[in-house]
Design a protein that fits this description.
Two copies of one chain form a homodimer. By secondary structure, chain A is an alpha+beta fold. In chain A, 22% of the residues lie in helices and 29% in strands.
Chain lengths: 248, 248
């Protein structure tokens, strides 16, 4: 059996998220159909983690086992021919049998894009959160590093059952967290050991309250310590979020 | 009655074109619903011209008559709130009663984008024609200006009934026609007095044959002179085409 690692990008707008579901179009399900058409095998590639409905990926990583002898380069071309333009494989490589896209991951990075101009061009609307109202961007920049370090992120975790069984703790290590300006966009970049369900979108929703002046930067520290979802901000829209990188 | 001129941008991917149709989602129909909700009037804005299914606009122009006294600035904000993110109004202004978006137009510009890299990022796929195969871009550049000037463009006109009744001639004046490189994209820009149905996409399809070496640049002149649709190239996909500007 060969173990194949795929790096893939997708526009999540029209998908019900990563994870395969019976009646919905998902990234994992669409990928499984494409792999099945090429190898004749029924196999579900395991992702580095799930992405929610509408969330995008610049470089999601997934792996699957196959008996197929198709060279990686041909596999990449064949998959991209079959996959819709909204999902494309960026790299395919054979890896060691013990490589596991989720368990072997050492760090993940996410990006969140907020478009700040009054009118959002239709060509960008699917890929950002359009928020044209006043924000104290300096205060948001000051608040961002306050979530760095090893913390119990319960205040930023979705209150739902959608988590892996192995996840017995809400403690995660955030290596870096910062807001920056990229012309008309305010961009949040966060890198950490792993992220809870909805964690990045809940962080963004909380930083937005800082930008609006509802919260002050030190309040973010108090929110972490409270370990209570209700004290943090709302979940920011999926359209602005990108799984940017997975490190092994 | 006030005469309102709208400048609008749209992502045409999910629309059946500009012109209102009974059972399909169209730009003109969606715009009419939004205007109706604001003014209470049932009015169809007239565009500078139709765009086909899947074709985009950076700055389409349309006008409509209204009894409404809503200031233009408020109209713009209200329309953008109601319109889907895939259609947005860039400008709204009251104009002279005799302004007509189509009849008053003196020149139009179109852009056509071809993405040249092997893998097309999912975030760009809706907005380009992905053509990663070899092309002689120098030959395409040489061929482009050959369509400049006043010509009968029958060879590049769609063989169909979809044309305005007033259009009794296939003669059009092309002011400029050129191909250029914009990093990973090959971009065609054409400006003229007006364009026949499918004309820009048929020009692009013909220049592509020059890029592939099937035709030589001087053949483009012969194709114009033949006045026969069958001698020109195929119609390039809608996804790469943008109505870029309308001049009055």
């Amino acid at each position: 059996m060969r173990n194949i690692k795929l790096t893939l990008a997708y526009d999540g707008t029209d998908f019900a998220g990563w994870q395969v579901q019976p009646a919905s179009s998902t990234i994992q399900g669409t990928l499984a159909s494409a792999i099945g058409r090429i190898t004749g095998e029924k196999v579900l590639a395991q992702g580095s983690g799930r992405t929610d409905a509408g969330v995008h990926a610049l470089a999601q990583v997934a792996n699957f086992q196959t008996e197929s002898v198709i060279p990686e380069g041909n596999l990449l071309i064949a998959l991209n021919d079959i996959l819709p333009p909204s999902i494309q494989i960026l790299a395919a490589e054979e890896v060691a049998p013990d490589f596991h896209a989720r368990k072997s991951a050492r760090a993940k990075s996410y990006r969140y894009r907020i478009y700040r101009e009054a009118i959002c061009p239709p060509f960008r609307a699917r890929y950002v959160w359009h928020y044209p109202y006043p924000l104290n961007e300096q205060a948001m920049s000051e608040a961002a590093p306050r979530v760095e370090g090893k913390h119990d992120f319960t205040s930023f975790a979705a209150v739902d059952a959608e988590r892996d069984r192995e996840e017995i703790s809400n403690v995660r290590d955030v290596f870096s967290s910062q807001w920056g300006r990229e012309s008309s966009e305010l961009v949040y970049e966060v890198r950490g050991s792993g992220f809870l369900h909805h964690m990045v979108r809940n962080l963004v929703g909380t930083f937005l309250l800082v930008g609006k002046g509802t919260l002050k930067p030190p309040d973010v520290t108090a929110i972490i310590e409270a370990k209570k979802r209700s004290v943090a901000g709302a979940t920011a829209p999926a359209s602005g979020l990108y799984l940017a990188n997975v490190e092994y």
